[in-house]
Amino acid sequence: MIRPLLTAAFIACPFGLAAQTPVTVALDWTLNTNHVGIIAARDRGLYEEAGLTVEVLPFSDTSSAALVAAGAADFGYLSALAFLSAKAGGADLTALWATMQHETGRLVYNLDNTEIKRPADLSGRTYAGFGSAWEAALIGTMIRHDGGQPEWETVTLGTGAYEALASGAVDFTLEVATWEGVNGRLLGRRQGSFRYQDYGVPDQHNGYIATRAGVLRERPEIVKAFMEATKAGYDWAADHPEEAADLLLKAGDFARPELVHASMQAIIDGGWLRDESGGIGLIRADRFEGMARFLYDSGVLKDQSGQALVWPGDLSGWYDQSWRD
Q1: Packing angle between helix 257-269 and helix 241-251, nearest 10 degrees?
Q2: pTM for this one?
Q3: Do 68 and 212 touch, CB atoms closer than 8 A?
Q4: Are 311 and 296 contacting, i.e. CB atoms less than 8 angstroms apart?
Q5: Residue 14: band (very low, low, confident or very high) from pLDDT cuts 50, 70, 90
Q6: How many DSSP H helices and E strands does the chain contain?
Q7: CB atoms within 10 A of CB 277
Q8: Domains within the chain, CATH numbers bracketed
Q9: What does the alpha-carbon distance between residue 3 and residue 40 come to, in Å, rounded to a whole number?
């Protein structure tokens, strides 16, 4: 049974006290290296030291954004698109943390197709997609920015896109460099790639930890305790990627341990986890607002009637890192 944190009978404990406060965290996907700091904080006793008993909820068909907004989870790990879409739609969510400091997604193609050398060459070709409106805005922007005609055929394949690309059944797809990209390299697949941010798409954070605005307002001590312990977990993982991968393997059901280890190393080598100053989990206004503006301007964010939302202007209230003070 999912137990919400803030009930009428709940008595909050200040940060660091021994009494254990129950907290639930919903994940955006099955356990992976994006979540490593949460697992490190839980399994290395950092949450316990902060006075918290943290339950990581199993991934389900209900999105982490919906679970947090409904009060069925106290905190959630959300993809950037999921957070911005839910918040723009009126969900009571506030971002507290950004895991990846730069965009980890990229467009990939099969190197055996020698006719593809730049995004403009994707015009008229076949894309293996995942069914989100964001994909069309992203691909169209990249092709147009490179001087091509934004026209292509889409077949929705989900995770089957990567096998289809490897076999030559489709011409291009999207992947996360720190997971599918690493997996492709381990499998010896010949793939080229284009970074989104090199072709007209703003760089962005990937992976937000969020809570309800009401929790942040009414129980800031719980937010502070949870987030400081979470930060310590990610800091430790960044400094100990091999040990962190081992800890993650013990926590989840992974068919290929080598993928987990290679993914952790790719995150560190790629400079995704820490920003240019060495900070971790920081939300930068330019990256946050740049992607939000792109999604608004592209018509990706819509209301319940399907109408594109109007840019709201100031987004500073969409995120809060006062727990760092």
Answers
A1: 140
A2: 0.92
A3: yes
A4: yes
A5: very low
A6: 12, 10
A7: 7
A8: 21-102+205-324 (3.40.190.10), 105-198 (3.40.190.10)
A9: 22
| Pair 265, 241: CB distance under 8 Å | yes
By three-state DSSP, how is residue 4 classified? coil
Contacts of 206 by beta carbon, 8 Å cutoff, 6+ apart: 34, 79, 80, 98, 99, 100, 102, 103, 104, 105, 176, 272
* DSSP codes, 77-133: EE-HHHHHHHHHTT---EEEEEEESS--EEEEEETT-TT-SSGGGGTT-EEEE-S-H
Classified as helix, coil or strand, 153 is strand
CA–CA separation, 46 vs 51, rounded Å?
9
d(CA 100, CA 126): 29
- Does residue 82 carry a pLDDT above 70? yes
Task: Give the separation between CA 151 and CA 79, rounded to whole angstroms.
Answer: 27
Both tokens of 67, joined, read 């679970």
Tokens 């947090």 map to which residue? Answer: 68
| Residue 8: predicted pLDDT | 32
